[in-house]
Amino acid sequence: MGNCFLRPQLKKVESVGDPYASHKQLMQPPNNIFIPPRGSSSSAVSFPDQRSHPLPMPTPILQTSIEKKRSGLLPNPPTESQILASPGLKSFLYSELCKATQDFCLENLLGEGGFGCVYKGWLNQETLNAETPGLGITVAVKKLTPQGFQGHKEWLSEVNYLGRLHHPNLVKLIGFCLKGENRLLVYEFMPKRSLENHLFKRSRQPLSWATRVKIAVDAARGLYFLHNSEPPVIYRDFKASNILLDSEFNAKLSDFGLAKRGPTGDQTHVTTIVMGTEGYAAPEYIRTGRLNVKSDIYSFGVVLFELITGRIAVDYKRAKDEQHLVNWVRPHLRDSRAIARIMDNRLEGQYPRKGAYVAATIALHCINPENKYRPPMAEVLEYLEQLQSPKFQRLPSPPDPSQQKQSSLATRSPSPTIQLSPPNWSPINRSPRKSSSRPVSLKSSHHSRFSRLMEPCEEQLNGSKFHL
């Protein structure tokens, strides 16, 4: 699942390690493994994907006794027997799941990742016994590959969290199977697959702006629930491929193999091995291995930018200055009038400029390099919910075909990479100078630094520069 490599022990970590290592390598390769330099064109190295993988190890940091106390492991973690005895989960026999999936045939294959494969299966709705294909309820069966990057520890973590945490925006775990080397999980079936499939595959119908906002709100609700659990849960692997969609495009978080119990009491963080996906992991977590809920906030900001731009977090097929999404979008958000430059071309200009700029501003706060300045998920969710109101969902008028034809004859059409909207549509969407209409400001019940910066949207939406 993603890339795996060793990081040389340096005194200072400046960036994420080499992204070109093959995801087929073992989790702990030998010390003498050759890592090709960035930009090499070795034919033996595969292009990196966006699946979860171990990120480079941080430099060891000497801790004082107080820091060790604050970052130590949480007391009394549940044992394996306690996790598997969850009353809300069914323990399946391996033969039952073989029958439900027709012996894991290729026709029922839904997807494949570093953990293994996911198959479609059918169960009786009342007894949860294997059912004839097409009858009963449809389920998704994840079969862990022994050689995959997610082992028994990650499998058990998923059973632990999804077995005791229940929320409309978390995928439902129905049961599990533990038989010898076979480790399987049975989930509810999500017919629209992952958000990644809709954003980055051109064969899919593009998502409308309203649907993108709805998905962002649902995902934020899932994270808010996790961060406010007792103890808090750090998701640690928030990305588009882990956001699943049902038939009504309701979003649910899946894949809790990397989830971690968050700090409690006077603890500020937990220290752990650095795991995640390049482009989504928070920079301070990569440098130090210190993890808290603000690490998820950074990942959420990256995914929110993916929803806005239609670009993946890291894409080495693009020009050098456009490969990392976070670095590419920052300069374009210094002025609200530049929002059209980063919008997804597949939207064809059909998005509310005010709502898009507010969404981008929220994402910009979430990816703040200093984690203490990132807003809590409660405030992020509150502002995103306001974007679902009609005043932030008004779309520009559709273009006049006759004017569009005249405009295309009079001027040369721009290249597809920079064409953001129909020729006669104004991406700024400003009112006439003599008009008295003004943008509607956002309101929040919170009185934090984030809310104070978000509320005066009038000046920002009228062209003034925004300073983070």
Automatic annotation (TrEMBL):
Q: Where in the cell is it found?
A: Cell membrane
The molecular function terms of the Gene Ontology recorded here are: ATP binding; protein serine/threonine kinase activity
Region Disordered, annotated ranges = 391-456
The protein, known as = non-specific serine/threonine protein kinase
Q: Which PANTHER family match?
A: OS01G0588500 PROTEIN-RELATED
Q: Does the keyword ATP-binding apply?
A: yes
Keyword GTP-binding listed = no
Name the top EC class.
transferase
Q: Which family does it belong to?
A: Belongs to the protein kinase superfamily. Ser/Thr protein kinase family.
- Residue ranges constituting the Protein kinase domain according to the UniProt record: 104-392
- EC number(s) from the headed UniProt entry: 2.7.11.1
A Pfam family it matches: PK_Tyr_Ser-Thr
| Gene Ontology cellular component list | plasma membrane
Residue spans with biased composition (Polar residues)? Answer: 409-429
Top-rank lineage group of the source organism:
Eukaryota
Organism (species): Cinchona calisaya
Keywords carried by this UniProt record = ATP-binding, Cell membrane, Kinase, Membrane, Nucleotide-binding, Serine/threonine-protein kinase, Transferase
Q: Please give the chief subcellular localization of this protein.
A: membrane
Binding residues annotated for ATP, in chain numbering: 143
Which function does this protein serve? Answer: May be involved in plant defense signaling.
